[in-house]
Amino acid sequence: MDDLCKSSMKFFSDQHLCYADIIPPYEVRARIQVAVLNFLKILNSPDPAISDLPMINRNSSNSRVSEGLLTDVSWIFLSHSFCTRSLMRSNAAKAFIRVWKVMEMCFDILIQEKRVTQRELFYKLLCDSPDYFSSQSQVNRTIQDVVALLRCSRYSLGIMASSRGLVAGRILLQEPNQEAVDCSACGSSGYAISGDLKLLESLVMKTDARYIIVVEKHAIFQRLAEDHVFNQIPSILLTAKGYPDIATRFLLHRMSRAFPDLPILALVDWNPAGLGILSTYKFGSIGMGLEAYRYACNVKWLGLRGDDLQLIPDQSLAPLKPRDLQIAKSLISLEILQENYREELALMMQSGRRADIEALYFHGYDYLGKYIAKKIVQANYI
Fold first, then answer.
1. Cβ distance 115 to 156 under 8 Å?
2. Catalytic residue numbers?
């Protein structure tokens, strides 16, 4: 235990660690204990004070880009700039206390060898500390604060991802001590991706697919699964029903490692939000804090793109919404965004319009599979 405490003390003095990794429960508990000891040490010193909590700054100004040298994958990560939570500043005092409350809760969860979702944690904190927690967003931000302080993943803290993700198509998934699931026989509902990353890591996967197709929308995923597009185009279908959660990104990343020769192609709406979703799979997201860099994959943009607008009736195009403009502004500021993606974004802004994937149904409900097949045969993705 002394050696563990010494290594954890060294961890807290190392200002160059700016990522969150998956570590065992005993090490997380040791880091929490050292945080408490550091706090008490300063409080009991000859010149007592309430110490601030130093954590990696999660603002976009602290983001950097890593360009892969031996891989096609690039990703976003956070640099070494620090910020603090302080009890002595009125606007940060509650946030300071929230960090300790969440650390205490995580310590208890790890002792009990349990895992909880962020939603479950919110209700527990709401009942135990109603003066400090009144919304889910406060809990989510505080969890990110704890990740930034201890520099370990949410999963290491005992917090399980709430997954919305689904898989269908030509892949067999087998959980430990369970029968293999044939995802091509799961119907339009697909195979529900577990939020337990340990379970996802242990999945045995087999496939004869030649492509992985990431679909933005649940309804489009259902249409493709119902039409068995994965038999016409030997493929695996995956969706997170919008912006991807950690569990869905984790599984996609595992697939990319297990089947490195399979191109990953994204089918999203032609609007800034669609590009934002694709970029989250491809580069990561600063919104995920120190876990931003994890699970980035070399995703290619299949569609919709500007050259597909000729397939869509003019009356099916809708004006960009204010939210679209906000997302576009955020995307333009990303250093990592490649030039041909910027050109697509500029075309959206110039036209002032957006196109949904469903607009292709103008050609019939079975057209979507033909559209995807033609684009793949022509290698028309970027």
1. no
2. 123
For helices 322-332 and 339-351, give the axis angle rounded to 10 degrees: 150
pLDDT for position 75 = 46
Of 239, 200, 203, 242, nearest to 221 by C-alpha is: 239
Per the listing, tokens 């135990």 go with 128
- Cβ neighbours of residue 33 closer than 8 Å, sequence gap 6 or more: 5, 8
Q: How far apart are CA 309 and CA 139, in angstroms?
A: 42
Q: Are 125 and 102 in contact (CB under 8 A)?
A: yes
- Arithmetic mean of pLDDT over the chain: 86
Nearest to 216 by CA among 358, 369, 333, 326: 358
Q: Give the Cα-Cα-Cα angle 267, 269, 275 (nearest 5 degrees).
A: 85
| Residue ranges in the chain whose pLDDT is less than 50 | 8-17, 61-63, 69-70, 75-79, 81
Spatial distance between the Cα atoms of 166 and 39, rounded to a whole number of angstroms: 44
In this structure, what token pair is assigned to residue 235?
């493929």
- Bridge partners of 239, per DSSP, are 166, 215
The H or E element that residue 134 is part of is: none
The reported pTM is 0.81
Instruction: At 48, give phi and psi (nearest 5°).
Output: -65, 145
Nearest Cα neighbor of 139 from 180, 181, 177, 94 is 94
